[in-house]
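Reviewers of the previous submission asked for a worked example of the structure-prediction workflow described in the proposal, so we include one complete record here. The input consisted solely of the amino acid sequence. No template or homolog information was supplied to the procedure at any stage.
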Amino acid sequence: MKAEEYIWDYRNPYLWMDRVVRSAFPPMMITCAITGGVQGKESNEFLPESAEEQADAVYEAYKAGAVSVHLHARDPNNLALTTKNPEDYSRINKLIRERCPDIIINNTTGGGPWLSTEERMCCLYADPKPDMASLNLGPFVLKVPLKDRKEPLKHPRAGFMFDACIPASYADVNLYAKTMKEKGIKPEVELYNPGQYHVLQDLIREGNIDGPYMIQYVMGFQTSSYPTPANVLGLINELPPNSMFALIGVGPFQIPMNVFSIILGGHVRVGMEDNLYYRKGEKLKKNAQLVERIIRIAKEMNREVATVAQAREMLGLPAKPAK
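From that input alone, the workflow returned the following structure tokens.
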């Protein structure tokens, strides 16, 4: 596939109509974010926490059709928290590579709310190294009620209201990006609101990020843009050249945002980090359920679903992961 076939001007109505008529949108890449950095099994008993549980969840999502997995390694000494130890990421990455040899591993530099800037970068030092890593473009504010974590769950704790600002300066974001570039890890840029395009342009000017740029819009998260079609179109209007985009929808907005991305020719992220329910009143049992559902929807809409090989080509990644 040539670059111009998947990098195109999403704002051009004539190109959009032409691609609809020809069923010629780029193959849709599916990322599965299997767990997060805040909620745990106290919110959904099927949320994977341990390295083994995460590897199992990734394998199921991979078999279902996910080409990329987004990881938050937990602290094995306290599974309610994310880790600051690169060895914990190494363990998960190794387990995944053994069962999913070509999947795109995408480790988080968001980590968890309790980590410092340096601690968030621990995932970049994993062995085997990730193909990609998330790169948040700025700070955000959280106010989240965390449920009681009761026995027999490991590492029980009382519930509480988590209320904090997760900091990020221009220097912090450039440090993450520069470290990724030095290690041959591609950033997956996480954009929460249109003001963060200033930070993206700074990264480009500083030469700390190379195209093609994968921009992922986080819609419906606290202090991110509201998850509405109008806001998505506004964000797309500001995309720099040589960019692709994917949509995240948090909670009940996961399906609307995913489907809107299918319509627009973008890519999608599903997974239990973003949403713990399959439908109202029915909790998810597996991350793979969300992968299977979005593939069914995409196929009904005549949208090709990317293979891992296609996704690696589109993202400019090596055909095979680094050993």
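The chain is about 35% helix and 20% strand. We consider this example representative of the routine output the project will generate in years two and three.
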